[in-house]
Amino acid sequence: MRQSRLDRQLRIEGWNQQALENAKVGVVGDDDLLASLYIMSASALGINHVVALAPTLSPTLTEVAQKLNRRFSLTHVEGFYTHPAMADLFNACDLIVDLSHYGLANKLLLEKGYRQKKPVVRGLCYERNGTQGFKVFTYIRGREWLDLEQIISPHSLPNDHFDDGVLDTIITGIILEETKNLLMGQDVSDNLISYSRKELSTSNDQKKMLVVGSGALGIFVGLGLAYSGFRQIIFMDPDVVEVTNLNRQIFFYDAVGESKAKTLSTKLNALFGIDSNHQVAYFDRNSDISSFDVVFDCVDNFESRIVLSEKCAGQGKMLISGGTSPDAGQVVIYNPAKNNVTPAKLLGLYDIIEKRSPETYQRERAACIYHPDPSVIMTNQIAAGFMVDAYRMLLNGQEPKNIFYDSKSNTRF
Q1: What residues does the THIF-type NAD/FAD binding fold domain cover (predicted)?
Q2: Angle CA(347)–CA(410)–CA(39) in degrees, nearest 5?
């Protein structure tokens, strides 16, 4: 079961699953969502040992972590990191992930990292001077000359702070990528990884949404929409859950052989009280999108993405298109009000399809068992988070840019 669950990431060249499974990771969190999201994602990746110091963790997400990975062990100490003596909790850890929002913890952890030569990956989302965003930085002893003050919270002690489930999802993916690189002895970013945009206003205007594809990308798009308060969502996917999906498709741990779209809709409705529904079907030229305000493209093949582009352009519908590989991803926005180029044209999908031999895409359905490409959770979290944030920006009258993420780049996007 373990081998099958992790199959898609074990296919990645140079991948060292043993390094992840043998590691122990320390996590310092706050009374918010971020630490819980990271712990769940780390479990999905196959990290088996986490020690967390946080006042609370989400029971829902920690339960998912336990059910995804039967080897997963979580030691949770309730509280805030406010005294040097607490550092002993993390003495056996290979690295520490700092997700706190107060300066005392940030400084104590950097000091521990310096004295014990222990890496500290710091991540936070913030709201300041009319902007919202996030910052991620990996501290390794010797980087004292870098602008460490940019990752120290201005608040000395725990207090109320800005938190956002969509930005948290992106941060989690980036930090987990850094975690993986540290444990496998690969390069981490030398830069402060940051993202910002204008502050978003909340709206009670409920839009109707179609999410095409209920795999990893569709799951995290659905999760981000639910965190953002959207309720009327239809998930479309023809496939059933395979064991090899489970390293990244977090809600399917008990649904092997069942419909992806139905399972995802049912889980999100139960967790968030939303009104989502599902269609077990392919998206094709006969699919009706007339009732939807926006379409999210989370499919795994170029043919369907071309049809999505053409249908949305023909009917003047917003289209947020996402795609991922094991180490990269992209988000392309089609806004008919701005007469944008469609994702299919921008990404050159017509040329790709024309050059591809017909037999390279012959299968009865789109399940991953027929398309065994390497895949991991991180790029799906990052792309999905940016997809949802792009739509929120559009609703606020902002103009989101297309995002191209590259895990090998210091700046990342």
Answers
A1: 206-400
A2: 90
Render pLDDT for 95-128 as a digit per residue (tens, 0 to 9): 999 999 999 999 999 999 999 999 999 999 999 9
Length of the chain: 413
Cβ atoms within 10 Å, residue 350: 13
Q: Which one-letter amino acid corresponds to residue 210?
A: L
Is residue 390 a contact partner of residue 30, using CB atoms and an 8 Å limit? Answer: no
Split at pLDDT 50, 70, 90, the class of 355 is confident
Q: Any idea which fold 208-406 has? A: Rossmann fold (3.40.50)
Q: How far apart (Å, rounded) are the C-alpha atoms in residues 269 and 263?
A: 10
Whole-number average pLDDT of the chain: 93
If phi > 0 it is left, if psi is from -120 to 50 it is alpha, else beta; for residue 283 that is beta
C-alpha 212/C-alpha 321 separation (Å) is 10
User: Strands of 318-325's sheet, edge to edge?
Assistant: 277-279, 232-236, 208-212, 294-297, 318-325, 328-334, 403-406
Buried b / exposed e across 107-133, counting CB within 10 Å, b at 16+?
A: ebbbebbbeeebbbbbbbbbeeeeebb
- Cα–Cα–Cα angle for 300, 305, 310, nearest 5°? 170
Pick from 54, 56, 74, 58: which is nearest to 66 by CA? 74
> Where do the H-state alpha helices sit in 72-215?
103-116, 165-183
What does the radius of gyration of the chain's CA atoms come to, in whole angstroms?
21
Q: What is the pLDDT confidence band of residue 365, given thresholds at 50, 70 and 90? A: very low
**What integer pLDDT is reported at residue 363 of this predicted model?**
41
- Kindly report the CATH number that applies to the domain delimited by 2-198: 3.40.50.720
- Is residue 252 within 8 A of residue 260, CB to CB? The reply is yes
Rounded distance between C-alpha atoms, residue 383 and residue 324, angstroms: 7
> What φ, ψ does residue 137 adopt, rounded to 5°?
-145, 140
Whole-angstrom Cα distance, residue 87 to residue 216?
35
Residue with tokens 């039967």: 70
CA–chain centroid gap for 104, Å, is 28
pTM of the predicted structure, to 2 decimals:
0.95
The residue behind tokens 């399972």 is 263
Q: What 8-state DSSP symbol labels residue 242?
A: -
What local confidence, expressed as pLDDT, does residue 314 receive? 95
Question: What residue type is 189 in one-letter code?
Answer: S
CA distance 206 to 229: 9
**Contacts with 401 (C-beta within 8 Å, 6 or more apart), sequence order:** none
Q: Using CA of residue 70, residue 76, residue 81, residue 85, what is the dihedral sign?
A: negative
Amino acid at 222: G
Kindly tell me if the per-residue pLDDT of 358 is higher than 70. no
For CATH 3.40.50.720, list the domain ranges present in the chain. 2-198, 208-406
